[in-house]
Amino acid sequence: MSINDSGLHPRNRHRGEYDFDALIAVYPDLAPFVKNGRANRPTIDFSDPRAVRSLNAALLFYFYDLEWWQLPENALCPPIPGRADYIHHMADLLRRTHPAFKKKKMNEVQGIRCLDIGVGAAGIYPTIGIKEYNWDFVGSDIDPRAVESARQIVRMNSALKDKVEIRLQTRSEDTFQGIIGRGERFDLTICNPPFHASPEEANAAASKKVSNLKGKAVRKPRLNFGGANAELWCPGGELRFITDMIAQSRQFGDSVFWFSSLVSKKDHLNAIYRALKTAGAYEVQTLNMVNGNKATRAVAWTFLGK
Asked: Which CATH architecture has domain 73-302?
């Protein structure tokens, strides 16, 4: 199957077609899920959560040097190409603005530290960021099960050891408090916030997504990318989560060079910009990303420079 990669970042390893022979060679468990699709080209059933997990595992083994990767039942299994795009765009932002990159190439700068808010059970962003740029990561999450899963992935992979620390956020209302220690510094924070405002909204979106994949109505789908409550929804949904994070980020303005978050709904941007103005952000940048017909964006802000 060809990935609809128009718009993917030029450094994204997932541009072009999946090489299923190469993926199966490093992860044989993918083989039973590969079938011939349109034009007799190999593909998988993207509405089958087992197939999607196997494909993601194969991608992580093949492209990102993982040796072991498993997820708890119902954990979010995010699409890797889009996650990689976020990392690459943030790397470009650092290269344009961070003083450490002055007169240096991207991979010549060592010691960049990234905080992944809501690292999830899969640990995708640290895995990509370490392979691509050798960044150091702290990942935080409010779900103890996700924290233990991410820690196990780190323990079981030599590429991640000594590069990632996973921290449990014990207060669901806090984003940075209790995670960023006194005197601790980060070059950037990243976040893939919960999109939905309720479990009903999340289930309706999942039904629509799987119905589109299958070409017929599906009322109670098995979520092809999974997702526990904290990963898919929170009170107030994406907008409230991001605006709360912005308000709290002001307290840590001297500790972080760039804060950022994905924003799935373009209609939320104006409210986010107003929240950033209220918080007193010094500079705001919107990073637009496109994967085929799907457009998304990340908003980044800093309090440094005043």
From this structure: 3-Layer(aba) Sandwich (3.40)
Q: Would you call 116 helix, strand, or coil by DSSP?
A: strand
How far is it, in rounded angstroms, from Cα 106 to Cα 86?
A: 16
Q: Helix H segments across 191-265?
A: 199-214, 229-232, 237-249
- The candidate with the shortest Cα–Cα distance to 276, out of 241, 240, 300, 306, is 300
Query: What interhelical angle do 237-249 and 269-279 show, nearest 10?
Result: 20
Picking from 251, 218, 115, the residue whose alpha carbon sits closest to that of residue 125 is 115
Residue 277 region by backbone torsions, left for phi larger than 0, else alpha for psi between -120 and 50, else beta: alpha
Instruction: For 141, list phi and psi in degrees, rounded to 5.
Output: -160, 150
pLDDT tens-digit profile of 245-297? 999 999 999 999 999 999 999 999 999 999 999 999 999 999 999 887 788 99
Overall pTM surpassing 0.85 (yes/no): yes
Query: In the 8-state DSSP scheme, what is residue 2?
Result: B
Q: Is 71 helix (H, G, I), strand (E, B) or coil?
A: coil
